[in-house]
Here is the input.
Amino acid sequence: MNELDLSEVLYTLVKIYFILLRESEYEDRKMRINADAVIIGGGIIGVATAFYLAREKYGNIVLLEKETFLGSGSTSKAAGGIRAQFATRTNIQMSMLSEKIFANFKEETGFDALYTQCGYMFLLSEDKDIDEFKKSYQLQKSLGLPVELLKPDDIKKYAPIVRTDDIKLATFCRDDGIGDPSEFLAGYEKAARKLGVEINIETEVTGFNTREDKITGVKTNKGEIKCPLVINCTGAWTKLIGRMVGVNVRVEPVRRQCVTTGELDFINPEFPMVVDVKSGLYTHRESKGLLLGWADKNVKPSFDISIDPDYTDNILERALDRIPRLETAEIANQWAGLYETTPDHRAIIGWEKAVAGLFHITGFSGHGFMHAPAAGLVTTDILTGREPRIDISDLEPQRFAEGVVTEETNVI
Ligand SMILES: Cc1cc2nc3c(=O)[nH]c(=O)nc-3n(C[C@H](O)[C@H](O)[C@H](O)COP(=O)(O)OP(=O)(O)OC[C@H]3O[C@@H](n4cnc5c(N)ncnc54)[C@H](O)[C@@H]3O)c2cc1C
Here is the structure.
């Protein structure tokens, strides 16, 4: 190649570089620079909230997700459980509202997603657990939940493969069940986009603009957006967002793991979600086999989501003890994700007192998929100046500083 050719090649390369640079700047400029509300986090909570706000014509809504796809945080790792059998009023009511929406999702959003109401069964073998669950059962009944108490013989009708010789009682609610978090997320996303919500992936919030402790905008890796309202839906990453404005939001990331088995020919079609309260094992039908999960309460907070083989062994040991026929089962898949855990295992929904214009919807402590519809709806009530349809005043962020906490004890 002679000198002239070389300089031409170089010139062309420089030209291509500037065209690409201009194009990427253009891409960035396509993001709104003004919004009425910016939602940080494209998991099920952020996307459901975007939909409900847009449905109420809140104005220009922009959702920002740092990863390459929506749901890439905890939402895509969730086991799909949906249940209203909790120990606190707020959680029961949030689930009852959400279950109605999951069951009528097409009417709600225009898009299909399947909610299988196979029921949730809590197996109880210890007297202290029976006392606790009977109290919750009374509360659930008083709120209108169709929950039942089952004797060991009745358990076999729903879950014949479960060993029941040490089980004294079970609670069962037919309205509970399982759904695919990705399907519901996709439905909310499509419905939100249809209503004009702008969704930007690979867009990370790196800081805030404030004036006199009031939000005026967000800074991202793709530029700034001016806005008077920021809704923090960053789940396990919430603490990092809090730090950007100097507040301590009490959400810790904690690793949780699941395993699925290969095909099993002995699972009956009505098999519900079964929770062995003593060991912490939970299991439900998944594809042609079972999903198995167990929350190791000794895991320390961190962002580590590598698979711990000891953890897997522990799940399998518990599963074999409760369902001996799993002896021949093969592991099909396993994964780990993050619970977004608060000190009282209940969500944080409300205004950040230290910074005006910042609203948190986070810290669902492992129940964010099932509570997403209710969380989006009550938040929209508050932000549009209406009385929230569920009293969620006990979920306010400052409860920890004020020492007014009621723990959710039925956590798996
Ligand atoms: C193994 C496992 C099993 C589970 N099983 C169930 C279950 O059966 N039922 C149930 O209800 N729940 C379950 N959960 C919990 C459930 O997954 C979560 O509660 C729920 O997904 C929380 O949704 P979210 O939208 O708040 O969080 P996420 O889905 O984590 O979304 C938060 C998003 O914020 C983004 N983000 C963070 N920081 C920034 C930033 N600075 N800028 C832009 N974006 C940012 C993240 O990338 C992430 O995508 C389970 C969780 C795990 C790990």
Remarks:
- The mean pLDDT is 94.
